[in-house]
Amino acid sequence: xxxxxxxxxxxxxxxxxxxxxxxxxxxxxxxxxxxxxxxxxxxxxxxxxxxxxxxxxxxxxxxxxxxxxxxxxxxxxxxxxxxxxxxxxxxxxxxxxxxxxxxxxxxxxxxxxxxxxxxxxxxxxxxxxxxxxxxxxxxxxxxxxxxxxxxxxxxxxxxxxxxxxxxxxxxxxxxxxxxxxxxxxxxxxxxxxxxxxxxxxxxxxxxxxxxxxxxxxxxxxxxxxxxxxxxxxxxxxxxxxxxxxxxxxxxxxxxxxxxxxxxxxxxxxxxxxxxxxxxxxxxxxxxxxxxxxxxxxxxxxxxxxxxxxxxxxxxxxxxxxxxxxxxxxxxxxxxxxxxxxxxxxxxxxxxxxxxxxxxxxxxxxxxxxxxxxxxxxxxxxxxxxxxxxxxxxxxxxxxxxxxxxxxxxxxxxxxxxxxxxxxxxxxxxxxxxxxxxxxxxxxxxxxxxxxxxxxxxxxxxxxxxxxxxxxxxxxxxxxxxxxxxxxxxxxxxxxxxxxxxxxxxxxxxxxxxxxxxxxxxxxxxxxxxxxxxxxxxxxxxxxxxxxxxxxxxxxxxxxxxxxxxxxxxxxxxxxxxxxxxxxxxxxxxxxxxxxxxxxxxxxxxxxxxxxxxxxxxxxxxxxxxxxxxxxxxxxxxxxxxxxxxxxxxxxxxxxxxxxxxxxxxxxxxxxxxxxxxxxxxxxxxxxxxxxxxxxxxxxxxxxxxxxxxxxxxxxxxxxxxxxxxxxxxxxxxxxxxxxxxxxxxxxxxxxxxxxxxxxxxxxxxxxxxxxxxxxxxxxxxxxxxxxxxxxxxxxxxxxxxxxxxxxxxxxxxxxxxxxxxxxxxxxxxxxxxxxxxxxxxxxxxxxxxxxxxxxxxxxxxxxxxxxxxxxxxxxxxxxxxxxxxxxxxxxxxxxxxxxxxxxxxxxxxxxxxxxxxxxxxxx
Length: 923
Hints:
The protein is mainly alpha-helical.
């Protein structure tokens, strides 16, 4: 049995009254209080105690639906009693029949026969034991029953009779309330009990039944405030708090769930029907719930609404803090039949629109109705902007989709579709396809402005619809695409800046079509990013590209640059071999942009991080980041850009020796339009490397030469992006065609004598393979030194392995063993496929391992991470911790941590031992 909280005094009073009743004194008790204040629980508790003490208990619950049924409560009391003596049985049955006949008409005056029968029955019931009559919701009693009860109380005298009424002040028929206030409460034998709401301590006591003491005390104050001290609501809220396994300690407003909502609705059902109707109107209107608006929605006057809301019986149940909770709004509106709920939402939407409510409030109702509303489109578009500003892109998309369906005017429909296309592309590019035919047709008819055309062109190219994109862009040059306002030109420039990141060939065509238009202001971040990226791709004027890119990236962190320019600037650092800087900037950008620009840009920056890892030789992380990027969106949403993550996956898995896995990525279908993009060139390079690893030299050569043809055609022949000449030369060497390999390598060195350090070192390594054995070591050492400075551990391992073989062929076994050991250690640290040993070198390695002094760490113990390696290398060259921190863009504390771990792995204790220890691993 549920214990009543903070009702001890009331229970003592009732116990005393029953004691006096047993002694032969007629008593009446009126328990008053707002809805859900615990009146029913107290009444039931008293009835159980009286029944246990041997009293005869008659119970009834009045209802608003039976308030006009004469003697309905009396009938309920008597029908609930089953007499055991035959004489009483006949008397009560005759009374019940008389009551049934009396129900056919109103009695304005008491009927003497009925009063006599009732008096006789009650007198009979009190002869053997005390009689307790309990009536709940007495404010809904029919007038006749209340009048007869009062008459009986006056006539019972010293009979052991107690009548307990539980009622809500100010609720029910006015006549009943007047009788209660003017007659019942003024009777000399009437005791009034006004129930108070639970205090904070009382709420804590209830919560202790559901959670630990500490949690109960912490949540008690908020719980008591939200529930208004109503025990029923406190119990329901505690039940919801217990059910929230994810966050059981969350504050009450956020913890309120289905149980709380049902409890509030049950309170509203027990009130006047008008209370529920007003509650439904308040729930429908939400934040915009003025008295006049609620009254209009209910079809009442504002004064009547305010009177009901302020009623002491309602007791704050109609406060917005309560009805505004999602769980309460849901059940309150759900209490209406579907058709009525639909009509209410339609009326609420129109009312909110007329009252000038915020678009988000009105749009909520528009989304729930099917009716066509002439003004809905603008409201939904405004709501989409507000939702997007609040970070809820899914809601914004929903509003725009509904707005698009609502459009009747063709121009408005196109405008809405363009906005929807722009937003959808950031999160689900595949969903854009259904809107593109309509927008392309609008562009061809000259109905699409330059500003609206930008997202259309971007989506067409992303999904590989190059022909349609070309047709839309052609409108920029022939003047049929209208310029809307002075800000139209920057949008046209945006297309030209964005295209080099995707379709260089199309970008050149678009630039020619718009050659007559003035260029964008050169001082903008977008212009500087495009210029820097173009300089790196063309290998012309690269000196200022890196500083310009870093300036753009600093502005990007402040939110002043769009993600396309940020990504272009990041690629400048990557292609300029500033991999340490690129790592820092990429991580910072991903942290700052996460969730701001949508899944597409998040995926592209993740791909950039994978490329940085690959170029540093961190194959495991490169593979992990590429996988993460590919799974951020469904494959169909990647469109032609799917080649970007696939390229990194193929390169990393091939280098790791997982050729079967690499081939599975090659089995993924790639749109043909992808090979008109920079990403497609990188994909050709990755596929060529896979063919080399498989021994398919002809296929590899074909891919490398195809990549080179496209890069030269696009005037984007950047060896740092794709070293196609070097890779093609490697394929020629595997095929035994040394002359062709030398021709390509000579061309490479003559065209790009300076810059592109990493790509140049790869060329040196390949050049060495064309030389006599005695000519190879100096060239390979030169390549190794450059790769060491660039931080490319993987290609450094390959170069050192070649150097070991070169020394072995010259009979210099010690040097061969030394460099082979370094190569194997680096390859192991990179998670690369194991490097094969020349027979003699393998023996030397084993001999060195057997003769290593006890306690000296072996190669397996020397697995420095890439970050530890870079810090240790700089420290070995004499840089201080502060200098290292500035160079690598990390804190001094991070430098110290990397050095500590490096000392432990290398088995040394001081900084001066670093040069010797590192020299045992790399040159």
